[in-house]
Predict the 3D structure of the following.
Amino acid sequence: MAVSTGSRTGTPPARPSLRGHRLPRFAPAGFAVAAVLVTLLLWATTGFAGRAGFVVAAALLYAVLQTAVSFGVEGRRQAMDRLFTTLVTVAFLVAAAPLVLIIWYTVKEGAGALSGTFLTHSMFRINPDNPGGGIYHAIVGTLIQSALATVIAAPLGVLAAVYLVEYGGRRRFARAVSFFFDVMTGVPSIVAGLFVYAFWILALGFQKSGFAGSLALLILMLPVIIRSSEEMLKLVPNELREAAYALGVPKWRTILRVVLPTALGGIVTGIMLGVARIMGETAPLLLLVGINQRIEFNPFAGTVAQVPQESLPTFIFEQFQLAAGNTDSEPFKRAWGAALVLIIIIGLLSALARLIARFARVRG
Amino acid sequence: MSQQPTLGAATGPSVDGPPVAGSEISGAAVRPGDRVFRGLTVAAGATVLVIMAAIAVFLVYRSVPALRDNTVNFFTFSQWLPDQSPVQFGIAALLFHTLVTGVLAMILAVPVALGVALFITFYAPRRAAAGLGYLIDLLAAVPSIVYGLWGFAFLAPHLSGLTLFLDKWLGWIPLFDYQLQNRPNNLTDFTAGIILAVMILPIISSISREVFRQVPREQVEAALALGATRWEMIRTAVLPFGKAGAVSASILGLGRALGETLAVTIVLSNVYGISWHLTQTGGVTFASNIALKYGEAGDTGTGALIASGLCLFVITLAVNFSAQLLIGRQQRKVA
């Protein structure tokens, strides 16, 4: 780290760089401008048209131009490097484009439907083809069903994670459990729905209800909670446990009073991300939760007199089917409005989870 | 949780017998509270195994009667008529379109997702990397049904140009041959594949990012110190290390795509036939068939749907199994 103060004033060496000829730093920008200009010219003079095609053509031109010039000036290795940098950057832009497009389109289509009435009224006695009505009943259903699933899945998931981290070790049973957690992550949501349908409704004889939906959501949520809690528990430093043992605290109290509180912030974050993941699930609810135009607070409602709860995702699908492909109809607008509300709820939840994660890191 | 009447413990340094010999750190002593708490956690862990087993058992149990009534071959028949008087249903078309859309999604998503992972890990500025990763992960937070609406109302109408372009220049490949005269509506396997690709992109890229982050720092620096360009460093140090992880990430993505329901249900036009013309109207998958037919299904119909769900379960299980085995091998290599 010695700072040499001697030869600061000398003129910069005039010899060529050790790394051979290099393109100037502004070269990529220059190529980009050239590519866009040439494509503009092409679009103006020939039969090509379309915005998407324009972007693709300009990007292709840019890559070819830069690689060719670099190949001539800098040699094959630098040319390859530049080409790959371009490819990787384009990959990122390609991935980000649909996100922007989806959010933009949902806001554009959904914002018109949003209003005080839309958020605070149900569809009871509303002809779906006429304007009016709202999604209050669906929001209530989704919140209650997600909360129910969380209330069951969170303790179960955290306990299972405690087993893996604190008791399991390298035991064969623990490894089997861990393996199946990962496999369970991949169970398609519709299969979870079918299972609850076969088990809860066909075998046990219950009716469709909001609670049946929560059962399926809980299956989908469990592996997410277990995995994130496990990661958090692993971060708790061993010194804390050893200190507790040294004071004669039994292992179970150590876990309840020392380990879990230390990791609490991270665990809560994981649970909330799990909730965010299942809130948008539609497929299992389609099989298990009914269609209801009224507000129903009871998740166990499921008889002829008491029609089961609605939920936000099934409401969207129902309105989509009512629209019968007509994108200008009232049901379609309602579907977009509900989609926007669903995205906002999920977005708020995940933002809140990240916030908690930032302020409540595992303290070591 | 365990509110046991054994709270007398932990009032001071207890002098119990000699510590239990074992490889892991065990608590100071094993008390009744310990046994209860441990039992609870084991039960919670076992619940997952029980649920997985129960899924298999109940799906098999409920599908057997319908399969017994079936008068045609379940695997080679392509129509779905379980509630008619000769009971006829088969999964040929479902299997075909599920695999075609899933594989198409994987082909489209894997290069982009790996590019994203490399970009975020090695190219993006350090400060921006976490934010950019979060941005891509947001794609996973968009509900399936919103993808469906978007695909139906925005993507499909905008794909007509591409469909005709592919037909004009690549029409000699049956996959891209568009034989109909009307303007394409794009409610097809092709559109479904594109939407699935977007949906599985975040999972592939986030798992590969984890893998690329584990590449030994020394190897990266050694490659750079020897004068390698960034691409040469990635080719020689990162890719050999991350290959297995990237492959298993892609397989997990495929598993996700196979079971995706609502997006595909809305975009596909529910035609029970097998056709290699991806850009022509048609297609129905395991999941979309269940979503569309459950409402009108009778007893046999429900059993038939559960049987198809069982097939989907087995397929995704096999796919995920192989991915997990690959990941396990990778982790052993790291350790």
